[in-house]
Amino acid sequence: LHAAFVRSPRGAVKVARTVVAITVLLCFAVSHAPGACTALAVFEAAFTGLFLLLYLLRLDKGLPWLCWPLADIFNSVIAALFLLVVCLFAIIVQTNHGTVAGGVIGLILLVLCVVDAVLLFKKISFNRPRGSDTTAK
């Protein structure tokens, strides 16, 4: 178990993103929001939770042929785009208070997705060997 990951900035954002995604899911599920809202919240909570487990259990080291941070960036960017559309829809339609709350919290989740993508982008080494945090001279 890689407990130090949770204390890192990337780990803290990933944990916060998981908790907020579950909160959005609960808001949408309890308020009987339209299916797209609930489905997006389910997928976001599941994928974020899976990436969190992947990094906590160091499973990303077992499959080094796949650039896990890059896959995580794609997940974050696509989730942010879908969250923007679905959460604005939930806020504009205003079916009930739960749907509006889910939409507003979903926009907070969108910000966390962008922050996560930026932190991951800084980690990817395009011209350096993997695992190296120093710049090439």
UniProtKB/TrEMBL annotation:
Keyword Repressor: no
Membrane-protein topology: Multi-pass membrane protein
TM ranges: 12-33, 39-57, 69-93, 99-121
Keywords noted in UniProt: Membrane, Transmembrane, Transmembrane helix
Domain of life: Eukaryota
InterPro entries assigned to the protein according to its UniProt record, in alphabetical order: Marvel, MARVEL-CKLF_proteins
GO-annotated cellular components: membrane
Residue ranges of every copy of the MARVEL domain listed in the record: 5-125
Chief localization: membrane
Location(s), subcellular: Membrane
Protein name, per record: CKLF factor
Species of the source: Piaya cayana (Common squirrel cuckoo)
